[in-house]
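Task card 7
Instruction: Convert sequence to structure tokens.
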Amino acid sequence: MTESAFPRDPEAPEPAKPPVTPAVPEAPRPPVTPAVPEAPRPPAYTPGSAQPRLNRPVHERYPQIRPTSGYGDPRIRHTGPGPGAGTEQEPERSSKLSARLALALTVVIGQLWGLTIVVDEWMAGDTGTAWWGAGFLVLSFLVVLGLWMIDPKDR
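Output:
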């Protein structure tokens, strides 16, 4: 198997021949390893700081943090929402917003469908249908804008 996987360019110069080694074997030499300087060792870890003010107990370093901070702190007057939090206070408004949201989502889905049809027709070269589809998209946008303007106090 003398052929290489990569054929040689016939116009390229010949590669240099390797030097001829003498037939007399030499005595083996020990491998030479360069001396690598040792990295300095980090100092041994000791807990604490070189600054004595940081070695004080936590309650001395942060006097504003008390063992009762949070649940027993007299500065806390209200612990959060009262009973009934999360229940609907205005069910009529909620149903009106839900209906508007459902209608707006229906219009958005129709716009996406219409945009798909318009792009398909435009790419097929039927520009007349594409312009009618663009008109449909503008009309559906105006419907959503009208829904938004119906009740300005709900925003």
